[in-house]
């Protein structure tokens, strides 16, 4: 109860205000954080854009404040469109957010009740607005600590000529200042046009600025996974308290923040499969692939002979469907659903491998499930995540994101991952990650202690 947690002088229940970036991969961790803070006695108000708005009915304990952004409803597509959309959101949310926050603070006692705002790292303008209204702003970054180091290093990477990428031949060069990254793994390596490069630089520098001027920085990661990166961030951000509270989905009740309906029937299907036999395939909420890549992926999986569960999001392949003959060729060896309960799927004993685009939530959920991963990154932080899965965690294989997929390469990668000694080694290291994640969120674990510190910090603001 917040009254006791805050000490005898604090009689009121304190309220945290949250503002997620309206994409699935950012909404989930923010709602997991909401669940965590609510369980520790805070009242929760979620401010949100109209785009990808959460459903208040599914979160009866929270208050919701819609903030109209006045942008066209169409979601982002390419990396450049995504960057443009995020920057446009910052501009268009600023004034209506200021108005709604000021209104929320107006009633007598309301200002004292509000402890802080926690905004996504890409909503810099909102942290500023809150500060000007005397509300302390904390920042949640939903990606890895390693990726945030990449954000901080971006100006140096540009000065030293790593970025923008001007020739294919540059892509495999190691970035010696930021191991284990190669140039192709950097944020922005995929936005080659000068417009794309400028947008990426703007987005990264604004996120770093938001964090530096914040009252606290929250990361969905844990010490045993990214100790060195966390130590560097703490040094770089001297003065800003850093809270590594991940994996959030293990600390907070199962997420009900899915924007798409999860098909739960696949769990029954998994129940009937042999232990560690199924390859789970999902490319997250934003990544897309060509119809040609989809067909090659499908035939590679079919030819591998491996049982599979495929969460094939509507629109993943821009309207293209699985190739004719695929269903007949795979029969009851495979199940295709539109959207899966991913956390439960990855924790299921029948799942023995995960083909992912390498989004940070997926990478963490895969690690917590103890499953080795085949990573086919598309854009943004996914290349760096795939690099970590393969080279640092040594719990998976990266399928180079550059070229067109080829069914023979897919088949060989699935076999390496799911069968034989090499796959067993990767599975063993994935299980080790699962144990470390479990230790981090257990009583006395590093993330639990970080949550305690975060709660005390918020109450002290
Ligand atoms: C995006 C970026 O791509 C990612 O790299 C970044 O770190 C966060 O924002 P997204 O592409 O959607 O996110 O990937 P990811 O981070 O993996 O998040 C997807 C979320 O959707 C996960 O929490 C996953 O559990 C959930 N999901 C995915 C489902 O619930 N069902 C599915 O079928 C697939």
Characteristics of this structure?
alpha/beta, disordered N terminus, 461 residues, 6-stranded parallel beta sheet, 7-stranded parallel beta sheet, 46% helix, UDP_glucos_trans, quercetin 7-O-glucosyltransferase activity, binds uridine-5'-diphosphate-xylopyranose
What do these coordinates show?
- The chain is α/β, with parallel strands linked by helices and 461 residues long.
- Helices cover 46% and strands 13% of the residues.
- The chain has 18 helices and 13 strands.
- The protein has helices at residues 2-5, 24-39, 79-105, 110-113, 124-132, 145-159, 194-212, 223-236, 248-251, 265-271, 291-304, 326-330, 342-347, 360-369, 382-392, 407-418, 420-441, 446-460, and strands at residues 15-19, 43-49, 63-67, 114-120, 137-141, 217-219, 242-244, 278-282, 308-311, 334-337, 351-356, 373-375, 396-398.
- A 7-stranded parallel β-sheet has the order 3-2-1-4-5-6-7, with helices on both faces. A 6-stranded parallel β-sheet has the order 10-9-8-11-12-13, sandwiched between helices.
- α3 packs parallel to α7 (194-212).
- Residues 1-10 have low confidence and may be disordered.
- Keywords: Transferase.
- GO terms for molecular function: quercetin 3-O-glucosyltransferase activity; quercetin 7-O-glucosyltransferase activity.
- InterPro entries: UDP_glucos_trans.
- Belongs to the UDP-glycosyltransferase family.
- It holds the Pfam family UDPGT.
């Amino acid at each position: 109860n917040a009254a006791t947690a805050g000490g005898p002088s604090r009689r009121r229940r304190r309220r945290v205000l949250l503002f997620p970036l309206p994409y699935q991969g950012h909404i989930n961790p923010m709602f997991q954080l909401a669940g965590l803070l609510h369980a520790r006695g805070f009242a929760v108000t979620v401010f949100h854009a109209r785009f990808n708005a959460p459903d208040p009915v599914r979160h009866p304990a929270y208050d919701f404040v819609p903030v109209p952004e006045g942008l066209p409803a169409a979601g982002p597509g390419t990396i450049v469109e995504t960057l443009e959309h995020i920057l446009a959101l910052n501009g268009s949310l600023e004034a209506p957010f200021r108005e709604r926050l000021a209104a929320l603070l107006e009633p007598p006692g309301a200002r004292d009740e509000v402890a802080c705002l926690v905004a996504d790292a890409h909503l810099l303008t909102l942290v500023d607005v809150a500060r000007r209204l005397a509300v302390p702003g904390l920042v949640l970054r939903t990606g890895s600590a390693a990726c945030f180091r990449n954000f901080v290093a971006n100006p140096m990477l540009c000065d030293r000529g790593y970025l923008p990428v001007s020739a294919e031949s540059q892509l495999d060069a190691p970035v010696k200042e930021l191991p284990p990254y190669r140039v192709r793994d950097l944020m922005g390596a995929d936005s080659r046009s000068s417009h794309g490069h400028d947008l990426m630089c703007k987005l990264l520098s604004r996120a770093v600025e938001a964090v530096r001027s914040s009252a606290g920085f929250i990361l969905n990661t844990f010490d045993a996974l990214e100790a060195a990166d966390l130590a560097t961030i703490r040094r770089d951000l001297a003065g800003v308290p850093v809270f590594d509270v991940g994996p959030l989905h293990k600390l907070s009740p199962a997420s009900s923040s899915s924007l798409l309906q999860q098909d739960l029937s696949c769990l029954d299907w998994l129940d009937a499969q042999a232990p560690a036999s199924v390859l789970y395939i999902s490319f997250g909420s934003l990544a897309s692939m060509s119809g040609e890549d989809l067909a090659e992926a499908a035939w590679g999986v079919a030819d591998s002979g491996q049982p599979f569960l495929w969460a094939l999001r509507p629109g993943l392949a821009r309207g293209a469907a699985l190739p004719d003959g695929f269903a007949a060729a795979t029969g009851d060896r495979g199940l295709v659903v539109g959207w899966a309960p991913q956390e439960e799927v990855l924790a299921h004993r029948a799942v023995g491998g995960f083909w992912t685009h390498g989004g940070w939530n997926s990478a963490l959920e895969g690690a917590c499930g103890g499953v080795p991963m085949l990573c086919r990154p598309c854009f943004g932080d996914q290349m760096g995540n795939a690099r970590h899965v393969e080279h640092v965690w040594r719990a998976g294989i990266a399928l180079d994101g550059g070229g067109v997929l080829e069914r023979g390469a897919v088949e060989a990668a699935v076999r390496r991952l799911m069968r034989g000694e090499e796959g067993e080694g990767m599975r063993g290291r994935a299980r080790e990650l699962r144990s470390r994640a479990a230790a981090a969120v257990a009583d006395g674990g590093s993330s639990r202690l970080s949550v305690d510190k975060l709660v005390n910090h918020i109450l002290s603001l």
